[in-house]
Amino acid sequence: MQSDPNHKLVIYQLLPRLFGNAKTVNKFYGSVEENGVGKFNDITDIGLQELKKMGFTHIWYTGVIEHATMTDYSAFGIIPDDPDVVKGRAGSPYAVKDYYDVDPDLAIDVKNRMAEYEALIKRTHTNGMQVLMDFVPNHVARTYHSDVMPAGMRNFGEDDDKNKAFDPKNDFYYIPGQPFKVPGGYNPGGNDFHSPLKDGHFDENPAKATGNNIFSAAPSLDDWFETIKLNYGVDYQNGHQTHFDPIPPVWQKMYDILNFWSNKGIDGFRCDMVEYVPFEFWGWVIPKLKAAHPHLIFIGEAYNKTEYNNYLFKGHFDYLYDKVGLYDAVRKLVSNDSHASTWDINSVWNNDSKGIDEHMIRFMENHDEQRIASPDFAGNPWYAVPGMIVTATLNTGPVMIYFGQEVGEPGAGVEGFGGQDGRSSIFDYWGVPEHQKWLNNGQFDGGQLSDSQKQLRGFYRKLLNAVKDNEALNSGRFYELMMANEHNTGFNQRVYMYLRYTDNQRVLVITNFNRNEQHLNVKLPADLLQQLHVSGSVNFIDLLNGTAYSTSDINNGLDITLPATSGVMLKIQ
Questions:
Q1: Is the pLDDT of residue 1 over 70?
Q2: Stretch 327-340: mean pLDDT, rounded?
């Protein structure tokens, strides 16, 4: 049975804060004035057209909603946040301060910030792509307060009984009788940052539970101490008892927020840490929203394989992260880990995602994971070629790229709260150097890229467009060729091969994760050849570079030499 071709979304994740920033100062813990910040308006028609040419169908704008920050916008009527509960000068996009507002950092005209975001939504649609944005359901900033929510709505916690650790009618969880304590050893914004609010204290009494399920008045520096956990009716401290009838107030508040953004033309939501929120809530809210907005898609950040079916079939998510399955297997291979094996990829589709493959969103980078080109991962972005081919073509589900990945951005430097960790900081004001070479001061023409970077970007363009345009890859069936080839010439546990096919198109995918070239004889089983009505001499063309291959008798297989860390996508002619 063929899957719906609409599953093959090709997603580009970008942080507007970083994406359009052309400043190259990159001072440790630099301010917005020193290090600069990207704006909604920096994402121009020209830039969007260049992304469209890469094959992208959706753009996930990360960090749009207003979040706590150390930057003072009080001149615009925005209450300053206490830096003792903010991570980084810019602040974490996942410590939401007002679900109904957008980050003032991202606006040219702060008072006009929502209109600037609405214009970006419209601009993205005009350029033929759809818009995804974050929804952060599990926690909010410790300074959460909406000052622009629609009339008649109530702020989170406004009606809570703070004397109770848990009450299904409360929006938050409390630690009665104990004030909140800022983690020891925290120096907000570094030594050069000064603020009358920077005093090691934050007035919250009684303390509220912290976002990563820490029911203590004194979370550690490693906890999500800048956030407070929302109460969906689960009593975590009493055996996870659930209280879903009547509907908890948080459920309705979250529906209103999602509906607000859906009405602005958002096409879908990437939902943060969905397994920290009961699937019963999702099963209630997603169908309710889709009744009014049938086109909406919901992507869940998920890490627990045993819960996938609950969140897909009871929670009604369209897609879930395939992080602990395919990402982890591919990362080990790309990193040349001594324990890496392509049989781990076999295990993913055969076990972890069996029956739900088209619902798994695949990637090799995102804002949480280390950059491929960083020394913490592969060190060389070209080593990812076989892994990226598998990530994009293994099945019919979505594929996602993180901005800068396509030019080998290594995430180098100590930005501030984001340390030397192989990631591009989500906490700090920063310029992303290799990406900026493609940005080229807003020209989006790659004018400063090296030849190698241009070639790398060309590989991603060919791969993603092939996936988007070729029906065998975006909606075809899958036949793994490992068992048929494990005793053949050149086979080892660092090569992976499979066929993607429909009645009209067939693509033979062969990848080599080895750090040296491999001479392979690749055979298709007799029953598969019979099913495909293929026999005798066969010609192939590589969708990635146009190279032609052939065999005089397909029954004897295809002899092919693959360079180190490479792959081919051979369309059967």
A1: no
A2: 98
